[in-house]
Amino acid sequence: MNATAILKERWSGMAEREKWLVAAAAAVVALALAWLVALGPALATLRTTEEQHRSLDAQLQHMLGLQAQAQALQAQPKQNRNESMRLLELSVRQRLGTTARMQAGGDRVTVTLLGTAADALSEWLTQARVNARALPSEARLVRNASGLWEGTVVLTLPPV
Question: Which residues pair with 151 in a beta bridge?
C-alpha cells in the first residue's frame, strides 16, 4: 500500500471536526512557510533599500572623485627625475621648513621629520604626490609628547 492510499484511508476515517482542524493546521503551516520563505525576506529588503541606496551613492561619488583625480594625474606631462627632485625639495622647504631633512639616494628620498605638525605633514605629502609625483613607500612615524610627528618617510620618485 502506498503513502497516498494510507493518507486517503486515514482522512476518510476522521470525523468532520478533525478534518477541519487538520485543514486549519495545514493552512497555518502553509502561511508561516510562505511568510518565512517569500514575504519576510522581501519586506526586510524593502525596508533597508533606502539606506543601501544612500550608501551606494556615497561610494559612487567617492569613486568618481578618485577617478577624476587619477585622470588629472595621468593627464599631467611627464617630468624627469631632476624636476621631481627640485619640486620635492621645494615642497619640503615650503611645507615642513626646519622640521625636516631630506636625503636622496637613487630613486628613493628619505625625509627625516623632527617635530612636524600633522597638518603640515598632510599638506606636504599631498604636494609631494601631486607636484613631484613622489609616492610614499615607507613611513616610520611616532607622535611625541607635544603631539608633533617624528620619524622618517621614504618616498619613491617616478621612473625615468
Answer: 113, 141
Q: 134, exposed or middle or buried, with CB in 10 Å at 0-12, 13-18, 19+?
A: buried
134 phi and psi, to 5 degrees? Answer: -95, 135
**How do residues 2-31 score in pLDDT, each as one tens digit?**
888 888 888 888 888 988 998 999 999 999
